[in-house]
Amino acid sequence: MAGFAEGVPCWVDAQLPDVEAGKRFYGALFDWTFEDSTSPEQGRYAQAYSEGRAVAALAPKRDGRMPTVWNVYFATPDAYALARRIRAEGGQVVTEPTPVGPFGTVALAADPEGAVFGLWQGGTRPGFEKRGEPDSFCWTEVYSRDKALVDPFYEAVFGYGGADLADAGDQFRTWSPVGSPPGPDTAIGGRSLVTGQFPAEMPAHFLVYFNVTDCDAVAAAARRLGGRLRAEPFDIPYGRMAVVVDDQGAVFAVLQDPEA
């Protein structure tokens, strides 16, 4: 398995009240199969596979007060050094870097507005075995209110090259890894400004996207499985997307490529 450059999304997991219910929902929605972890370091962690390749995981919430969410993890060769940079740039380290057996080292952090993201220093498990293909992760973006606070944070912490989309003004900014020319062709994620169309109480957060072959069909299937839609299918320059809330409250997006 190939490694991931620092700052590149390398894994996602959902923190759920009921992992077995999550396996039923996502197994039917994305045709994922699951393998339960018996590792004492990981706890009960259901690894999801698409076509036999690792794509995500479902984990039980350890505390009922924790949000039901999809988390994105960014690769790093040194989680401890990255945690120090996060603090130095005004972020918070929510959980300190912790080794997970031979698999890698994990931590959770928050940006200056409170959006939570993960860090993963890969060991025997670098991260995704499938991405950018149907039924796997393809994109993430952070929803923020203060670009003057958030953009410098991520660009200093990960060394991203940032580029505002020409047709979106400063509403949307893409981020490209170190060594890549900034722009949509090399972007691995981005920042979207929270505007008046969003609820005032909505906190800063990351949205995880999964690639699908038919956005409308997946949206309809999510409803049949007990989920709901936060945003009905609509067209964007990069395809057709919808924002889905699963049957336990975790939010994610699906994106159909324009060619599809």
List the helices and strands and how they pair.
Blueprint: E1 9-16, H1 19-30, E2 33-36, E3 46-50, E4 53-60, E5 69-75, H2 79-88, E6 92-100, E7 104-110, E8 116-122, E9 136-144, H3 147-157, E10 161-164, E11 172-176, E12 189-193, E13 205-212, H4 215-224, E14 228-236, E15 239-245, E16 251-256
Parallel strand pairs: 1-4, 5-8, 9-12, 13-16
Antiparallel strand pairs: 1-5, 2-3, 3-4, 6-7, 7-8, 9-13, 10-11, 11-12, 14-15, 15-16
Description:
InterPro entries: Anthracycline_SecMetBiosynth, Glyas_Bleomycin-R_OHBP_Dase, Glyas_Fos-R_dOase_dom, VOC_core. Helices cover 17% and strands 42% of the residues. The chain has 260 residues and is an alpha+beta fold. The chain folds into two domains: 9-122, 2,3-Dihydroxybiphenyl 1,2-Dioxygenase, domain 1 (Roll), CATH 3.10.180; 136-256, Roll (2,3-Dihydroxybiphenyl 1,2-Dioxygenase, domain 1), CATH 3.10.180. The strands form two sheets. It has an eight-stranded mixed beta sheet with strand order 2-3-4-1-5-8-7-6, with helices on one face. The protein starts with 8 loop residues before the first strand and ends with a strand. The mean pLDDT is 93.
